[in-house]
Amino acid sequence: MSGAFQSGPDSREAWEGRARSQADSAAATGREQSRNVETAWLAKYRRAYRVATLRWHPDKWQHVSGWLQLSASDKEAVLARVHGICQAVNEEWAAILRDAG
Asked: Disordered: where is this region (predicted)?
């Protein structure tokens, strides 16, 4: 039995080569799964960012404030607050991208 790993498809080198190939494949699969989790995580935040920017975009609020019967000073206050919220949303999105990056 000592010659079982001598040559051919069952040689020790062939067995080690297959083992390395399987380990490399498993590592690649793990990296792909990690990327998929990271991509899913980023997609979740991307969707939240999109919803927030659509909700808090200043142009939308400028249009809405035209429908409301607000005084000029109240319209300016609302638009300033909306602009600040939109800026905060954009800054948080930039931070997420920087951290993911």
From this structure: 1-35
